[in-house]
Amino acid sequence: MPFPFGSQREGPTSAAEELNIQDELLAGPLAGLMLRMYFERDEQYQRRVPVFLHHLKIRVSDSLHPLHGTHAVFRIECEYANGASRWVIYRELRDFISLHAHYRVANAYAWGNRVELPEFPRTSLPYFNRLRKEGREKGYEVTRADFARLQREALENYLIGLIRTTMFRAEANRLCRFFEISTLSVSLAQRGGVQGKAGILRVASGHTSRKAKGHQLIAWKKSHDPKWWLARESYMVAVDTIADTDIYDVFLFDTDFIIERPKRVYRQGLNFFHLSGHHPHLEDEEETAGAHRHTDAESDETDLPKTGPQRKLFTKLLRSHANGKDEKPDGVNSEKEQQNGVTEQHDPNGVQEDLTLDPSIRKDPRTITENDNKKKGRSNVSQHTFYVQNSQRRLKLIARNERQMHQWIASIERMAAKCVWKGRNRFESFAPIRLNVAAQWLVDGRDYFWNLSRALLLAKERIYIHDWWLSPELYMRRPNKEHYRLDQILRKKAREGVKIYVIVYQEVSSRTTPTDSNYTKQKLMGLHPNILVQRSPSHFATGNFYWAHHEKLCVIDEAIAFMGGLDLCFGRWDTSQHIMIDQGEPGGHGENAQVWPGKDYNNGRVADFFALNKPLEDMHDRSKVPRMPWHDVAVQIVGQPARDICRHFVQRWNWLLRVKAHTRVMPFLLPPPDFHANELDAQGLAGTCEVQICRSCGPWSMGTQNKIELSIQNAYLKAIQMSEHFIYIENQFFITSTQVDDVKIENKIGDALVNRIIRAHREGTPWRACILIPVLPGFPFPIDHSDASSVRIILECQNRTIARGPDSIFARLRREGIDPDDYITFFSLRGWGKFESGVLTTEQVYIHGKIMLVDDRIALIGSANINERSQRGDRDSELLSVIRDTDMIDGRMAGKPYKVGRFVHTLRMRLMREHLGVDVDAIYNDDLMANSPVTPADEIQKWDPEGEQQDQPGDGVTRLHHHLNRVERAYERDIGGQAGQVAFGLGEITSRAGGKMFHKAREALGLKSDHIDAVIGDKTVERERHMVDQDGKYKQGFASSIVPTLEEKVIAERLPKQAERGDVALREPDEVPEGTVRENGQPQSEEKHLPRDVEEPLGAPALSVEGDNQALGELNPMFSENNIALSARQALRKQLDAKIHAHPWNVPTPAPVIDPDGFMDPVCPEFFEDVWIAAAVHNTEAYRKVFRCVPDDLVTTWKQYKEYIAWQERLDRPAVVDMQPDQPKNLSHIPGELGNINMPGKQSSKVPSSPAETSSSDNHGESETATKVEGMSGGSSAAAGAGKGEKRPSRPDEPFEQWERDEMENLLKHVKGHLVLYPTRFLEGEDMANNFLFTSDRVFPMPIYD
Q1: Which run of H or E residues covers position 532?
Q2: Residues 282-317: pLDDT tens digits?
Q3: Catalytic residue among 848, 1202, 1260, 1314
Q4: 3-state secondary structure of 598
């Protein structure tokens, strides 16, 4: 059988002189021979193997037991095409005799076309005694070694003669089977790797390699026909015949791979009662190779009772029976078998300690006789059948005879023992850790698509693409680069012969997920036959209607991989400036060119995609609706991890072929072999990073029978636990470790963060988590729209995760006496723009990246969101790369020198600079792909803390929270009664007066929630709206309604310490004049409002400023020291409602000074508080002042929400002064909450009913009518005032004046980048009243959104 060997032995003999195949093809005759081979058939009517046997070199290099008759074993080294393919086979002497006999029999039936066979060498037969006698007569001594050498030479010459006789005939197929050379093995030689045994096996498990179309009986028969199988370095592959290259099936080795020999039950009889796992005479079948397990029926304990006591008793009886009857004979037999090597443990390096063993079967061939089998009781074990099983499948394979079965098992064991995919990996991942990898981060779509387009154009053999959504008409370089459009690139490469394989997610309905995967498939497959597309999943076949294939990857030539958060679809291409206005001309050039053509100009908050079969038609009015900028992160990887990703794709592709019936035949794919150790170094493709690929997958997404892989969550948990100072997260969602309406969120990322913060607090070490998430989910419709259920449910889950309810992160930290703002902060991104008409607009910069950076040393980059769908493993399928750079450079952390990894450090600096408005394109970034390894791979210590994957074998989740919960309990026990806990713990408490105030406000506002209570249960509703005090008692209310927000703390602490020159800001609350004119045109002292306990439930200070400090002091005297922060809250409300006469518009917090080189230390207060947080607060206040953006911390009720919407509607009202027909009718526009009036197929601009309208509409009517236009008289008076040169503020029933418009734009020019605070108090009063979610929201299954 084949056995891989390293170097070519000297003296391999060929059937002809060494020739170059290319020279022979150019000469001409060889081409004719190739054509002849295609039509020739052998005696079995199989097509001839298209190989040139005269290029086959063979050498019988070794022999075993040459004097043992037909059981003599010979090692034959084979080399084809001048070393392109090398392998080793083992043959017994009887195999040579059988080969010669078959040719003789074939000649007897082949009249007139006989093969001139060479004479079989009789000297190869064991007649050593006669040969030694003849030698003595001639005067020389013949030794056993001399006979073995002569025997090998005679057989080698016989094979060479047979090759020369049959190499141009169809009868060469029999010789090919003898040498185990096939068309597929020759074609796979160019890919590298190792070849094991090849031969005939029959699949008898009722298995079909792919889902058949047509007659099932024919498909069943075809699946049971014998196939030609090859054992390769990490898989087994089958074809129909030895001459075929069309793959019939592929079987991959993985961590669950085992081989098993079944019992022949009909032969057991009463011997069944003698079976146990203690019989020594059966241990020869329990062979192991490294971590590989090979089991028999006799040694398998699956037939024993399953329950504990019964199993123990049954095993004890069996052992006592065996010891009583067979102890002495078994002991003798075991000793004899050990002497013969039958119970040999396989050496992982393939080195045989016992030279009497046949390497092809790992046994002594002289001991395998029928008598021995019967004596040892092995007749109960199948002599032809064995099973192979991995995480996806179980195949029953039947060999031709016992020796063939032993050869197959030994070869597969040897391959699996050396296969990296068989062992256990860090984080329970399917892929191992790879060292010295070249990797490059790519931020935003422009850089990602530019690098990807360059790699696609370099493709030579194959391209793999796996996306959630793919748009064929996507421009990868802009503007107007037609030859860089995705479909044009793929068509060009397909015409060049590159095979392109694509997997896209198949949506359940275009109404819920408007990606139109069918259009994508038809469009791509219509480009060229070399482009093949599969859609997944088959919803009815898998029973999956909720989950999606969410990974985004592209692999070129099995060497370059791209992965991350970016799909190859519309709406993803963007730059670091995140421009939201594009009014260029289609097909224009220069500055007038349209950058986002057609559907690529999109705003997901206004409308979902539609009519994707018309990609060049606009979805929005570009003069009124801005696009929603898209921020994302991806990574480019070269080398071994690219092949790991490739294997993941191949595994998914092949599984889909087995479960989906395609009208067009699609091929099975083979995973690539690993690169050789020096192959990447020689090509200059090695780097400095340690990379591991992790994934989330399970039964529906990968076909694994009983296994769910959630190595992504494991990686997140361990990275958080091992962090020392700083964690930076960007993610599309943040839903973890909480409970929402009786639904428990099970992923433990939130637990890991809380426990790490508690540990940092106890140890007194500086530690921070900076988390960026979108300000709103990227789904259409305003928040109070009846169709915005997805928006509200996701916000509800994130609120319960972050700040609301006893299970939130903030509540759990305050329970431990920790101020959350000292350790964890949440941010978002927002931008603004100006249409050509002069209209100002704003929109969030949608955060779609899925990254976590730890201590500037470890990066997690992939497609997995922080929610249940991505982290659980059995829901959405995801992919993640864990990257650690071994190229360590000098950095700083928490004010001290700290070694950081170049890859992660530069990525974190790049992201933070972009978010604060630094021109990152003007700053030189290192080409990380050009860095050479700094340490040899064998000297690098892998980052595998505590051998985590071995902690709980068989469990897919890393239970980090168990250990950390013990710390939490100890901490709570030690300081639970001390003042340190009371100081912040009381922030979660409301007094009885507060509870009465809540009920009074609820009755006054009509906020009734009985209809929701009836749906989810009163206990759940009550618990989620309670907090826990230091005594462990639950009390009603949300702590954040009393505790100062981060923005209020910044104002109170007068940050930043160094403000930008020329920026005007309100520093003190009393800087707002008492007599200034409010927005409604009334003096501030004359404003009338409801009493505080009625207007603002739970003490929320959204409107009234009187009695704030007193009311809070009554509830909690401990907060007297926080009166400064509460006065800052008062200043926010005053400043927002007041107009500063004859002064520029301003905000309480000035813009900080941004130093492009000041991002080195992300933890020190001088940067994180005085620059990062201060900039976010300043930007938040500026957007609130100009646009009244929602969500916002000052909007706690539906009434205030309506007031903000009324402000936005006022910005949309037409200007009256000097209006011309061609002048803009809008001053500003915020499409996300106002909706899009003229969207095709969408509802009107009227907002449907909501809880605010159904339960408290009476309170909203006053604010809504106040914004209506009463006539044109107000506008005329304003115009008259403007004509006199006065800057008179406009009234609520008037459009904004031009000077106000200029002030708005001037204020926005002071915005620093896109960073804003994530609001944690938005609609908090309504949430407390259980009036945030609509009744219809409860109908949808929560797991869809969490």
Answers
A1: strand 531-536
A2: 333 333 333 333 433 333 333 334 444 444 444 444
A3: 848
A4: helix
Question: Can 1287 be counted among the known catalytic residues?
Answer: no
Please state, in angstroms and rounded to a whole number, the distance separating the CA atoms of residues 1096 and 1090.
Answer: 9
Over the chain, what is the mean pLDDT? 76
Q: What SS3 string covers 1194-1243?
A: CCCCHHHHHHHHHHHHHHCCCCCCCCCCCCCCCCEECHHHHCCCCCCCCC
295, 329 contact by CB (below 8 A): no
Catalytic residue among 624, 785, 850, 961: 850
d(CA 166, CA 158): 12
Assign 772 to helix, strand or coil. Answer: strand
Catalytic residue at 1026?
no
Catalytic residue list contains 487: no
Alpha carbons 1105 and 714: distance in angstroms, whole number: 48
pLDDT for 1005 beyond 50: no
Out of 855, 874, 1192, 1293, the active site residue is 855
Tokens matching residue 882: 């864990």
User: CA torsion angle for 1206, 1208, 1213, 1219 (degrees, to 10)?
Assistant: 150
| Token output for 449 | 């698509």
CA-CA distances (angstroms) from residue 1287 to 502, 784, 1141, 1280, 1297?
Answer: 62, 36, 8, 11, 8
User: What is the DSSP secondary-structure string of 254-316?
Assistant: -TT-EEEEPB-GGGTGGGGGG--TT-GGGGGG--EETTEEEEETTT-GGGS-SSHHHHHHHHH
Q: Quote the strand ranges of 1090-1221, DSSP E.
A: 1138-1139
CB 156 within 8 A of CB 79: no
- Please provide the DSSP assignment of 1272-1324 as one string: SHHHHHHHHHHHTT--PPPPTTSPPPHHHHHHHHHHHTT--TTEEEPPSSTTH
pLDDT at 293: 38
Q: Which of 354, 557, 582, 819 is catalytic?
A: 557
| Residues near 760 by beta carbon (within 8 Å), at least 6 away in sequence | 766, 767, 823
Place of tokens 């931020």: 443
Distance CA 1075, CA 1084 (A): 6
Q: How many CB atoms lie within 10 A of CB 705?
A: 12
Structure tokens at 1340: 């949808």
Does residue 297 or residue 184 have the better pLDDT? Answer: 184
213 is catalytic: no
567 classed as catalytic:
no
Q: What is the distance between the alpha carbons of residues 757 and 760, in angstroms, rounded to a whole number?
A: 5
Q: In this predicted structure, which of 675-689, 1187-1201, 1287-1301, 1307-1321 has the lowest mean pLDDT?
A: 1287-1301
714 contacts 427 by C-beta, under 8 angstroms: yes
At residue 29, the pLDDT reads 61
Listed range (144-148, 516-520, 694-698) with the worst mean pLDDT: 144-148
C-beta neighbour count of 899 within 10 angstroms: 13
User: Could you tell me which of 553, 679, 689, 683 has the C-alpha nearest to residue 193?
Assistant: 679
DSSP H or E segment with residue 78? strand 73-80
pLDDT greater than 80 at residue 373 = no
Q: Which domains does the chain have, with CATH numbers?
A: 13-181 (3.30.1520.10), 253-423 (no CATH), 438-682 (3.30.870.10), 690-928+948-974 (3.30.870.10), 1018-1339 (no CATH)
Q: Which residue has the higher pLDDT, 287 or 1315?
A: 1315
